[in-house]
Amino acid sequence: MPPPADRQLAHEIYKQLIEMKSGFTTGATTPVAEAMAARFRQAGFPDADIFLGGAVPNKSNLVVRYRGTGARKPLLLLAHTDVVEAKREDWSMDPFQFIERDGYFYGRGTSDDKAQAAVWVATLLRFKRDGFRPDRDIILALTADEEGGGPYNGVDWLVKNHRNLIDSELCLNEGGWGEVSNGKKIANDVQVSEKYVINFRLEVHNKGGHSSLPVPDNAIYHLAGALSNLSKFGFPLKTNDVTRAYFEKLANIEAGPVRSAMSQVSGGSESAMQQVAAASPVWNSTLRTTCVATQLEGGHAMNALPQLAAAVVNCRVLPEDSVEYVKTTLQKVFNDDKVEMKIVADVSRGPSSPLNPALMHTIQRVTDSLWPGVPVLPTMVPGATDGRYLREAGIPTYGVQGFFMDVNDLRMHGRDERMGVTAFYEGQTFLYDLVKTLSS
Ligand SMILES: [Zn+2]
Fold first, then answer.
1. Ligand 1 midpoint to CA 113 (Å)
2. How far is the CA of 120 from the centre of ligand 1 (A)?
3. If we measure between CA atoms, which residue out of 422, 354, 415, 383 comes closest to residue 196?
4. Per-residue pLDDT, 407
5. How confident is the model at residue 6 (pLDDT cuts 50, 70, 90)?
């Protein structure tokens, strides 16, 4: 547990953040950025080290620089301040009131991502109060519009417009947390890599006609045939540096029948990979690029031959697989030149961060000091965070939080989002120790 005064400070900031409505579509991040900037000014941070700005007036980001000796390149601490929308009627309580109940803090953003934002702010204020002199600048970026991306994404905007403000050797971000299963802490995850998304729209056009005079050349049948082929297809199973390390470590934790197969995955055994992929959708998604049909439309009247049949196929692509590879593979799978494919929206693809052994060792050491015996697990996640913009810009980014949560009750983006009270304060200590170790 952090010292009482620091605990109280983190609690106060956390509450303030949760109660500011910063919904991705309905809210604003500027009041959040301004409120945190006021705290830093009050604590004696010079104006020159506090930057406020964003793509539009209501989507501001805050960047604060805590000066070090400059012996090493800066360390960047990132958290987004927008949240997924939350409706009062969907929740059993007001999502924008910070409520402590039965050992949990409730409210939209309590886990994604305002806990980390609050801890970052509290950590820098504590450093300032204690007169800590790091051997590198520590930069805090609290950014807009991570959820759902879009034109006002703060990290994207900062990389393009104020790269110098956030330029750093590495970044710590969301995306990794502590895994609790059956009440036991099983791993402290570090997100090193993420899959990227491609949405394909499939269209089959046909001249149509009267349904009383059908012909074999039918838009719906073409599309259905292509999708049926897709349903039977799986991209090749494979591993990369991150997923090899992941399965190696996981084999030591896993107790079930899949354990021995898991330990052979890193050796590249095809049958072991098949067994592991079949055992869980998460592991399947870790071992291959996946593409799945998610939307369907077609036809314009009950008594007319369809002139259009269309579908969306959503792909979650391994960082090492290219857009072109996925596209040509799907074309072969569909095997029908009547099926036209186009990519919906821009594809944003970032590389993996290197599996930095010194950093992983440091994270393991700090983890051991708090939770002896809990392994640090490098992960590649099927979702996406702002880490991709930084990785693309050449700033290796690692998702690490040390907030432990029940893997069977993750509530980010869902109703009654919450964070364990103890988990929050332990995470505060973990992140404080980690930042201090990485800058001493
Ligand atoms: Zn998030």
1. 5
2. 15
3. 383
4. 85
5. very high
Q: How do the residues of the chain divide into helix, strand and coil, expressed in percent and rounded to 5?
A: 35, 25, 40
Cα 153 to ligand 1 centroid, rounded to whole Å: 12
Calpha distance 374→327 (Å, rounded)? 41
114 and 83 Cβ atoms separated by less than 8 Å: yes
**CA neighbor of 397 nearest in space, from 378, 410, 412:** 378
Helices (H) and strands (E) in the chain, counts: 14, 19
Q: Which amino acid is at 169?
A: E
The tokens for 341 are 């494919």
Structure tokens at 319: 């960082």
Task: Using a CB cutoff of 5 Å, list residues around ligand 1, an ion.
Answer: 112-113, 174
Query: What is the pTM for the complete model shown?
Result: 0.89
Mean pLDDT of the region 58-65:
97
Examine residue 113 and say whether the peptide bond preceding it is cis (omega within 30 degrees of 0): yes
Residue 382: per-residue pLDDT? 79
Q: Which amino acid is at 89?
A: E
Q: At 28, phi and psi to the nearest 5? A: -130, 145
Q: Which of 74, 53, 71, 75 is nearest to 62 (CA)?
A: 53
Residue 149 binned pLDDT confidence (cut-offs 50, 70, 90): low
Ligand 1 centroid – CA 425 distance (Å): 19
- Count Cβ atoms below 10 Å from residue 223 Cβ, excluding itself: 26
Q: Cα(221) to centroid of ligand 1, in Å? A: 40
